[in-house]
Amino acid sequence: VTTQPGDGPHVVVLGGGLAGVASALRLGDQGVPVTLVDRNDYHQFQPLLYQVATSQLPAEDIARPHRTIFRAHPTVAVRSAEVTGVDAGTRSVTLGDGDVVAGSHLVIAAGGRAEYFGVPGAAEYAYPLYSVADAERLRLHFRELLDSAGEDQERLDDILDVVVVGGGPTGVEVAGALAELTHALAALGAIPRPGRILLVDRGNVLLGAFSDKSHEYAHQRLVKQGAEIRLRTGVAAVHPDRVELDDGSVIPTRTVVWGGGESAATIVATTGLPSGRGGRVDVRADLTVEGHPGVYAVGDVANIPTDTEPGVLPQLGSVAQQSGRWAADNILRELAGQPPQPFRYKDKGIMAMIGRNAAVAEVGKHRHQVEGPVAFAAWLGVHAMLLSGSHSKTDAFLSWAWDYFDRDHAAVVESSTAPTRIAWGEDEADVPHISVEHRPSPARAGNA
Ligand SMILES: Cc1cc2nc3c(=O)[nH]c(=O)nc-3n(C[C@H](O)[C@H](O)[C@H](O)COP(=O)(O)OP(=O)(O)OC[C@H]3O[C@@H](n4cnc5c(N)ncnc54)[C@H](O)[C@@H]3O)c2cc1C
Q: Is 318 in the pocket of ligand 1 (CB under 6 A)?
């Protein structure tokens, strides 16, 4: 079956993340026919994935069904299907069942994926944190490890240590949360000792994109929370029960969290479009792809040139949301017979949460650095805005987040068995269908 564009406009959006949803909402607001295709029937909010992985939020709270998001946009049709091919010439996508959906315009918003840089064993045994399914897989892996150890203190002792690869925001946030959680569990006597949470990075500092002051802050806070940091060190190989580092040391562990790099979604390789750094689609200033009229690429899947200096914009939620919206505006301009305009990014700053009561942010033109509750307030503002594209009740998120930031260690432990939920107050029918591919725990593999 081929869905033809017909005579009128019809925009095909590949990907329902922050960028794709922002595009489709803007086009739907203007009554333009859109088909949005995503392998999942829900939109996922990546900035809160580590809370799901560390049992502090249920997965459903950060995954919202696309159909709910577009309920008030009758011209936006959603297809839940894997896209297996993209033909930029005909602005069409081929779906897993063989259907072809073609449009007058194509917006590629397929996001990114973990990049393992060919490290042996990493793709097989490390846990990436890119999707809700990834976060669930990591959470279930922990649970499986703990269940398999039961009351056996010796076996418990064997499974508590985690290696986190990558000192960017993902690695720092995961390491902070894990260190806090295992220290609190140990203080309550639930486990014999806190886990050894070792963060490894090839670089000289944590949070490389930030200023020296923030590098120092993140380092001190992580150490204070009980994490161990090893810089100027890479991972040579990952095994089910250990990690080899390139300084020759071997760290016994059954849990490796991979926050070590990102590249474009795999589908990009099939498009034949010009690609550069990270395998991402190179776009022009107006977000179109050179030589392919009507084709746009936005968000994490694209190398978007900055408008102030040479280089490309970082893979950030606000870049994704704004570029998605801008591509839609350019399509609307094209439909009105006007030329597309170059994308102007409104910089919202960079920020990371290192644990409860610990956050760092750099905001404004001169990257003013703030720490602690002020940084957290900045984080909240930006993330409430990112969520507002898919949720109307951002106040529920704000009250959950303040509570999360303030809560003490005992509450952390309590929440690990019964996470405090974000009171979205959804319809029961609005449940996303989250399926997690089973992967035997390395605990089993290692013990087999
Ligand atoms: C762990 C983590 C924490 C982060 N924290 C922050 C933060 O605190 N602040 C911030 O600003 N940014 C943060 N980011 C970055 C931010 O989340 C991303 O920049 C943003 O989500 C990118 O949006 P996107 O729409 O381009 O891609 P995505 O959100 O990745 O969406 C891509 C969509 O395309 C779909 N898709 C891909 N390929 C196919 C296919 N072949 N067929 C069908 N569907 C497909 C996927 O299912 C997905 O829904 C974080 C990222 C991660 C991974």
A: yes
H or E element: which one contains 215?
A: helix 212-224
Atom of ligand 1 nearest to the CA of 317: 11
pLDDT digits (tens, 9 = 90+) for 353-395: 888 778 999 998 788 999 988 999 899 899 999 998 888 888 8
Q: Is 349 in the pocket of ligand 1 (CB under 6 A)?
A: no
Tell me the pLDDT tens digit for each residue of 168-223.
999 999 999 899 888 888 888 878 889 999 999 999 999 998 999 999 999 999 99
Contacts of 225 (CB under 8 A, 6+ apart): 176, 179, 180, 183, 354, 355, 358
| Count of C-beta atoms within a 10 Å radius of residue 125 | 22
DSSP conformational letter for 39: S
Q: Would you say 196 and 231 are in contact if contact means Cβ atoms under 8 Å apart? A: no
| Ligand 1 neighbour 35 (Cβ under 6 A) | no
Which residue CA neighbors atom 51 of ligand 1 most closely?
A: 46
- What gap in Å lies between CA 191 and CA 188, rounded to an integer? 8
Residue 332 makes CB contacts below 8 A (sequence gap 6+) with: 26, 27, 30, 32
Angle at 193 between CA 187 and CA 199, to 5 degrees: 105
Name the closest-CA residue to atom 11, ligand 1.
Answer: 317
- Catalytic site residues? 173
pTM here is 0.94
CA contacts within 13 A on the Cβ side of 362: 16
According to DSSP, residue 421 is labeled P
